[in-house]
Write a structure and sequence with these properties.
Helices cover 29% and strands 26% of the residues. It has 458 residues and is α/β, with parallel strands linked by helices. The chain folds into three domains: 5-48 and 86-148 and 274-336, FAD/NAD(P)-binding domain; 157-271, FAD/NAD(P)-binding domain (3-Layer(bba) Sandwich); 355-455, FAD/NAD-linked reductase, C-terminal dimerisation domain (Enolase-like, domain 1). The strands form five sheets. Strands 1, 2, 3, 4, 5, 6 and 17 form a seven-stranded mixed beta sheet that branches. Strands 8-15-9-10-11 form a five-stranded parallel beta sheet, covered by helices on one side. β13 and β14 (261-264) form a beta hairpin. α1 runs parallel beside α7 (321-336) and α3 packs across α5. It starts with a strand and ends with a helix.
Length: 458
Amino acid sequence: MENPRACDVLIVGGGQAGTPLAYKLAAEGLSVALAERKDLGGSCVNFGCTPTKAVIASARVAHQARRASDYGLKIPDVRVDFPAVLERAKGIVGLKRERLDQGFEGSENPALIRGHARFVGREDSAFRLQVGEETVLAKQVVLNTGTRTLLPPIEGLDEVDYIESGNWLEKTELPGSLAVLGGSYIGLEMAQFYNRMGSRVTVVVGRSDHVAPREDDDVTEALHAVLRDEGVEVVFCERAESVAPNGSGLTITLEGGDPAEVDASHLFVATGRLPNTDDLGLENIGLETSKGIVEVDERLASTEVEGIWAAGDIRGGPMFTHTSWDDHRILLSQIAGDGSRTTERIVPYAIFTDPELGRVGMTEREAEEAGYEVEVMTFDMQRERGKALEIGENKGLIKVVADASGGRILGAAVLTAEGAELVHVYVDLMNAGANLDAIRNAVHIHPTLAEDIQSAVS
């Protein structure tokens, strides 16, 4: 006779929210199980943040070596060992996976259950799920199942061997030429990476006349200029219509594009993310999704089924590792705490090109649409005469948008060397509710890149 495992909370998915939440709920005295069908760590550890930043670091070294003459040095030849670059990244991924696995060794609470989780139905006051070969009865369930590449409806796409965020680490052949579909975070980062490795890269951007279309025009133009100067070509179109093999690779036909076709040896698809909620059996508990998104309130509780919570990319809103991690703090507060934490938060993000784009708050366009009278301050890094010039990293700009009536910072874009680090000055000021005087009256060390964060608003 079946003997199901009973627990207070079952967490489905061992990503950036699920794993820390499992430990902390167990520490609060709840019985907790974590279901993971493959590898702990989620997309961030396994094919996202961790390996991409590792290979981007390798690409930066190669790029800097090629620029040696700018610094009065001579490096006669820079050779890229592409498989070795990927192996370095895989090694870092493996180390992190190993540490995550070790944390659950011998642990009964939280318990790690390997297998795909699927709702079977309800049983009294609990949810009944099948996790691999095991049946689980859980009073509450947290869904943290993440996303996968959203494949666009392009004729012939299923007939070519494309690269995407889930498989790129296994593709050890360096493309001679690469077409990247998508001009946002993943597309731009990987375009610059492959270009610096030695591929000829073309980025295809649909339904927009800018890369990173969420940003203000001056910011996207500065980012585009960086990529263009390195040899990355960007093509704008209405949409990619079809893809077909040719003698040396493949041809992408574009609707409304100039040119109308793009030839490449390889294709990287970076056109968005699709929630992993289609095979969870949600229909068995009466939970419907909206394009795969689990609708939640500010507490991350399902608006349809009591006892169901969602975290990470599947709960809608910002799809970033740091928001997923912060979701675990919200859920801890709601499930085992005082309920004080909610999704009312300031969420920064970054595009890890080189230079990096660190972003927080509203763009100038968004602030005006929200009805603010705005004060806009822009600092051109090309005119910088401090540390950025001295270290040869003075591309990009800093843009700050403030409320003209009180000087409160509404948003900022920092497209500079270490921009993803420097933007946190503005993030912290916004969280503190401080106005521009807080940074204008500060004393920053000279020479530092942080001086420019102050100079931008002074």
